[in-house]
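@channel anyone free to eyeball this complex?
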Amino acid sequence: GENVEQHPSTLSVQEGDSAVIKCTYSDSASNYFPWYKQELGKRPQLIIDIRSNVGEKKDQRIAVTLNKTAKHFSLHITETQPEDSAVYFCAGDRGSYIPTFGRGTSLIVHP
Amino acid sequence: GAVVSQHPSRVICKSGTSVKIECRSLDFQATTMFWYRQFPKQSLMLMATSNEGSKATYEQGVEKDKFLINHASLTLSTLTVTSAHPEDSSFYICSAGVVEGGGPQHFGDGTRLSIL
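replying in thread with the prediction:
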């Protein structure tokens, strides 16, 4: 089955800096890689996703890159703001489209 | 966008009580829904895959007789925690979304279950 590893577990940055969170996956059949943001006590919400036929996708301050050969994908947040503080989860599918989540990264943006 | 509604949001009850949690897809049909359990500061742990019209598929280590799942319609799945005990206290959350071809999951607001 799919195994998704996520690093770091905690990331602390100053407002305006960039933040990068990395995930690796084990199942080469996986083809859909979303990123979710979960604020304290709230539901996870999709912020960006990428499919295996694309190497990079960008949406304003957020971007995701995918390296299928190395089986890793990364979330990049530029010009971080305090409201970006949350827990971020990456996910891969298990080939049968059942999501497998990484362990999460707690991002703290200091004003 | 797709909306998933989950109720109740908070349950506090005595040990031995059975608790039912509902997950509804409000504006789309979901043949598959997922149930997760989340401990504080931890990831989403998949408990089971709920399939409309058939039995749920449980993850290894999840007791199917303890966590009963029913997916009787294309818009409703229920999770019943039977004879709940304090160790069952947790945050339970459901999701639904496109499965075929891979797609985003839309999450309910979650249910905070506290067993006294």
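from a first look: Residues 3 and 26 of chain B are 6 Å apart (CA to CA).
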